[in-house]
Design brief:
Elements lengths: L3 E4 L2 E4 L4 E7 L8 E7 L6 E9 L2 E6 L7 E6 L4 E6 L8 E8 L15 E2 L3 E6 L1
Length: 128
Amino acid sequence: QVQLVESGGGLVQAGGSLRLSCAASGRIFSSYAMGWFRQAPGKEREFVAAISWSWSGTNTYYSDSVKGRFTISRDNAKNTVYLQMKSLKPEDTAVYYCAAANYCSGVGCYKEKTFGSWGQGTQVTVSS
């Protein structure tokens, strides 16, 4: 399994931005599909974004609630995946988790069960 460590969370005002980072161990990071999920208090964990690869190139996936505001990217040389969050809203407040999968495609990239390795999470709080 790959080890994942998130960072970059914090407190931000509504409309602000944050960039989350997830550093991964492993020599074949570039082959992993990576995802971000979040869990708000009293709610189930939900999909936020994912990035995978295929022979046709890099694919990205977003939940409807963050599409157009969040961007997932990766730097394979640094074994790191990022989640750039802009125009943050109070409803974005949650613990954000990084996750890794050997592979994902299509609807599988939206599902928790696809991802076998998880980080400890980082808190994001958006004040109104």
